[in-house]
Amino acid sequence: MRITLIEKGVPYGTSIVDLSRMEQKKPEYLALNPNGVVPTLVHGDRVVYESNVITEYLDDVFPDLRLYPEDPWERAQVKLWQAFELSFAKDYRPLMYQRLLGPIVRLTRTLDEALEIARRSTTNPFDLEWERKVWGLTVLTPDEEHACAGRLYQRVSVLEHALAASDYLVGNRFTQAEVSVFPRLRMYPYVQLPITSARFPCVAAWMARLEQRPSFEKSLFESERGMQRLSDTSVVPWLAARLKKARPNPVERAGLALAKRFFRRAMRGGDTGAARRQVSQKSAAKFTGTHAPNGAATPPTAAPFVAPFALHESPLSPSSRRVGILLRALGLSWTSNPVDIARMEHKRAEFLGLNPNGEVPVLRHGERVLYDSALICEYLDATFTGGERPSFFPSDALTRAQAKMWIAYDQALHKEWRPLLYQSVIGPLLRQDGSAETVRHAARQGGLAEGQAEWIEKAIDGRLLSSKEEELARAELLRKLERVEAAIASSGYLGGSHLTVADMAWFSRIEMYPALGLPVDATRFPSITYWLERLRALPVFAP
Question: What is the pLDDT of residues 112-124, one digit of tens each?
């Protein structure tokens, strides 16, 4: 986000959010960003969260230098790379806590101290249980840690292949795709995953070119430079290995004591306050500047591309369902290609050739292939609305960003949703239809990435979540509905006063809540209950 601001010449200020103290979970920060992640942008009285929503908002209100292409297909390709980068986070985030933040927190605080500091930010049992895992260095098992690292390197291999034929990711020119993907790769060494020119020559050359741009250089905090220098050493992995030992030897104890003094001073702010930035993934930013009062989103510039649609989907996927709702709302017909996610078909080579993220849905529009439900919906809306077909995305930049933030709020549920789906729906389904052992055997025979066979086996055996973790996940998913309830009670819809893709997204999600043992009762959620009834009465929401 800082790179985008600098590229556009927009002045901004920065407020640091300390992830090691769970400051992203403080009530005052959650009032800005209910997902409890960074970054968040405050622009006057406007608040925008989720990095890709922020950068598109900036492109709309500061249009002099466009980083998103105007052509709907090229714009979709930028967003495909953004979706690709977001998929990194599913593996990067737990690995960062396991390999970087966990050792630092464990070294500098007792468990009681860590929990006391966390309670200053949050009393949510789900968050406090996470802090226990971070301190205990049990966010991932050794096998899971190894599998995460393998998948993260596999994603770099996909990028290497794409850059073999082009200097840039989209249209062979600098776009927001570079701005979105580069920072994640720059952070790879933080979790002991160096990107070398010997292994990834095209990616390394691309990163070197981008680092020469003034915006990339100026976006770095001094603390980030320090973290980069630290990641070039073996200090953090050395700490993690010694902290796990029951009885470190005298030399190791002396090294730990020295490191403890250094990091404790740094975590309190130290001489320069840099350590707080070192443990911040990104900053929450605010800025002032002249902007267009409405900032209308970029309209399509070409006639719609005419070709048949094929949707690779699963009935167990809310994301598949919402794309089907929008296709129907736009009066478009399509062929359905079922993907059996219970048998992990979405993680096998044939499907990964369509979507390297290994998730449904995938939409094929002629020779064009799109994945990630949010960008599929944006592409369809940008390409096929106008005239008699109403748009399901608001045209005003702020209202449009607000609708997308609701979609981001939905997408942030994956941490709780995915394991609960496999534990409480898919595992029992496989056991009940008698195919559990067949699926287990097929998973063991290969064809799945490291860790995925273990995932489906744990689902079959009901071991993905402990009973406590399952209870916390259900409570968290229901708690997040409270914000949806308040918004619908206020305006009748999520995207304002009219039906938008935000409503389609949350309808498809809430529709599946009961299947996961999550009651959406009228007493607790009266506005959601009435809203569901109204939407179910519309033909486009038919099953």
Answer: 999 999 999 999 9
